[in-house]
Write a structure and sequence with these properties.
The chain is of the alpha/beta class and 386 residues long. It folds into 2 domains: 3-199, Rossmann fold (3-Layer(aba) Sandwich); 220-373, Rossmann fold, CATH 3.40.50. Helices cover 40% and strands 18% of the residues. It is built from 14 helices and 15 strands. The protein has helices at residues 16-19, 34-46, 85-99, 112-123, 150-166, 177-187, 189-192, 234-241, 260-270, 287-292, 307-314, 327-333, 347-364, 366-385; strands spanning 3-6, 9-12, 22-26, 51-56, 72-75, 106-109, 134-139, 171-174, 196-199, 220-225, 248-253, 277-281, 295-298, 319-322, 337-340. The strands form 3 sheets. It has a 7-stranded parallel β-sheet with strand order 5-4-3-6-7-8-9. A 6-stranded parallel β-sheet has the order 12-11-10-13-14-15, with helices on both faces. It has a two-stranded antiparallel ribbon with strand order 1-2. A hairpin with a 2-residue loop joins strand 1 and strand 2 (9-12). The radius of gyration is 21 Å and the shape is globular.
Length: 386
Amino acid sequence: MIWRTDGMTAEPDNSPSAEAARILLVGGDSRRSGVPRHICHLARVLSAMADVHVASEPDQGGYRDLARCGAEHRATRGLKSGLLPHRLFKGGCNLMKLVKSEDWHIVWLHARLPGLLGRAALALRLWRPTPGTRVVQTYHGLPFGPGHRRGFSTLSRWIERWMLSTCPPLDLVFLSPYQADQMTAAMGARRMSRHHVHILQNGSDLGKLPSRVERDDGQRHLIMTGRSGYQKNLALAVRLFSHLPDDCHLILCGDGTDHPRLQRRLRKMAGAAEGRLHFKGQIRNVAPLLMQADAYMLTSSYEGIPIGALEAFEAGLPMVLNRFETSGDLAETHPLALQLPMKSGNLAADAAKVDVASRTVVWLSLEKFRFQFVPVFHGLQGRLAA
């Protein structure tokens, strides 16, 4: 079977063998987050042309709609990222058992731990795929660089150099040209030339959006989506939010935001603003909350192409972004996006800019903004699919 990714499009071979193609997409954590949504989008597209299987930890909401995407879910323990040796061993054994169990045409590694385990097995010749099997690695974010912990960043660079030098030729998928360029600069053009590089950006598909009900209480709601963790930097968001006027509320959605310990820590940081801080936990359908919000905020230390931001884009919300790898791409395309350095010593000044930006939406009228926004978004979709 020949299956190629040129630029941003995936084109299957229409020969009879392509109809029976067996594709294994390997994720990790199964809670609702960007990687499971990306995999579900892929499964929906690929299932029309192949027999698609998805491996991840037992489902905790991220793959709830996978059956409707036309794919089979294979619960595989040990794929969630972690540093415990027995979990790494268990994950490696289960992954090898799965990839060797059938003659896959494509094994497509997504989450960080399966990507490391799978490519390490290839480098050490513990896994020798059958002839004709393509192994694909998607980088949902570079594992090093600004925003990452320095020690892990250095270690990740070394591991990537070793694997890219030692593995047989792979198909490497990046979410943006910028990521591919940064990886090439860090790894060296000669090392990267051993592999096939592709760009396949994230997408958004909220479906039919509910009607927006305008509030008459004079309050403004900023919304954040995404699971809690080091990457999302919720503490920075709350510190910035604490400088905003009293008519602003911050809505935190995503796995982990309903944990009492996290809530206590963030409420303490919010100080006098703690009563305007709202925790929603994991949300199956975020569209209604997006349609009730006045702006979307993302304070991540690092990102690939964040699906949460694309969903806010699709819902027609203005965006407030920290500076990360691809924030410039979003800010350049979005008609009303504010990109800030968000450094601790500057938060009061940053908050003043957020205040002005969110008031601009009220002045512009969100419905009028959305009317202007729709052709921009469809144009963006067209470029991603071109």
